Amino acid sequence: MIRRLLAAAALAVSLPAIAATAATPELKVTTLDNKPFDLAAQRGKWVVVNYWATWCVPCIKEMPDISNYVKGHKDVVAIGLAFEDTDAKDIVAFLDKHPVAYPIAQVDVTAPPKDFDPPKGLPTTYLIAPDGHVAQRFVGPITAAKLDEAIAKGK
């Protein structure tokens, strides 16, 4: 536990200063199953962009909720961004025990996606509207009710 706290503190200190999240962010990543994910290709759908880590208890708790939400809403997709400095095989092993219905990509904690603020806490989730703009940012766990509320506001 102390190692993780020290790692989180080191991460916070080592993150480069980055401008605020872009109004219409770009995100192109390769998922852990070697498939491309391009946020721009998701236009017309709501997109849940979820920063998480295997050691983050609230992240683990919300993953099934996000997975079920995506399965139950044909106009919503998600991408999980594993925000931790570990081997990809360890994340894959974790996902074997905690499967989700959406793709996962690992992002570099020292060079996170440029159009998103580095998370100041995990989980951090961005809800992207069908036109590509950031509809809402959540710090902390999200629920189906929070997603429903944010989507209703954005329609």
Short description:
The chain is built from four helices and seven strands; from the N terminus they run αβββαβαβββα. The protein has helices spanning 2-14, 57-72, 88-97, 144-154, and strands at residues 28-30, 36-38, 46-52, 76-83, 104-107, 124-128, 134-139.
Describe the structure.
The chain has 155 residues and is α/β, with parallel strands linked by helices. The protein is built from 4 helices and 7 strands; from the N terminus they run αβββαβαβββα. The strands form 2 sheets. The chain has a 5-stranded mixed sheet with strand order 5-4-3-6-7, covered by helices on one side. A two-stranded antiparallel sheet has the order 1-2. A hairpin with a 5-residue loop joins strand 1 and strand 2.
Give the helices and strands, then pairings.
Blueprint: H1 2-14, E1 28-30, E2 36-38, E3 46-52, H2 57-72, E4 76-83, H3 88-97, E5 104-107, E6 124-128, E7 134-139, H4 144-154
Parallel strand pairs: 3-4, 4-5
Antiparallel strand pairs: 1-2, 3-6, 6-7
Structural class per helix/strand content?
A: alpha/beta
- Average pLDDT taken over every residue: 89
Strand content: 15-25%
Distance between the termini: 42 Å
Record the strand order, biggest sheet: 5-4-3-6-7
Instruction: Provide the low-confidence segments as ranges.
Output: 1-19
Radius of gyration: 15 Å
Order of helices and strands: HEEEHEHEEEH
Helix content: 25-40%
Shape: globular
Major beta sheet, specifics? 5 strands, mixed
Helical segment count: 4
Oligomer: single chain
User: What is the tally of beta strands?
Assistant: 7
